[in-house]
Amino acid sequence: MADPNSDPRTPSVRDGACGSTAVCLGLVVCAFLVWWVYSAHQRTQQKVMQAECMGNVKHLCLALLTYADDHGGHLPPAARWVELTKPYMPRDRSYTCPAAPKVEVGYGYADYLAGLDRAKMPYASEILMVWDGSPTSPSPDPRHNYGAIVGYADGHAKWMGFGLAFRRGTDLDRALVEGKLPPPPGPTGKPPSAPPTQGR
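RE: above sequence
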């Protein structure tokens, strides 16, 4: 039975508890929404940087191959590859990875390809030529979604995840170029066709 002397306008303890619960729930919902918006922004930013880096690597591959075409088919030396490819680059910022903006030259070049004649390059579509990392990096750095953007000696580029193929570094590529290993399997499981040999 209700107390006739109680004021119905006075909030009870239960009302206060319900109000506190509602406030806490509202704070949790707001925090979740902030986290969700921030995460979505981060994912979008990562995709934009990855796409820009992919464009940079493709430009670098094209610059290296065009340099070779203008120099008797020979790729540039490792010590001067940045300097020698600048005339073939559309913009200087292509040397900087958007995920590492403070690094002036954010890509590595395969020293085992330096001076190599393109016509004698074995299995160009399987050989790493440019990758995320410093100019002296022996292998790619995982800068984009636990992976790296890498460019191949035939000019194509792709994202490479931090799996077994990524952790192998570039030792296998070097050995393949030097003729110390059999050709890698192609998409069908068979060795890709070797480049045509020049007539004697």
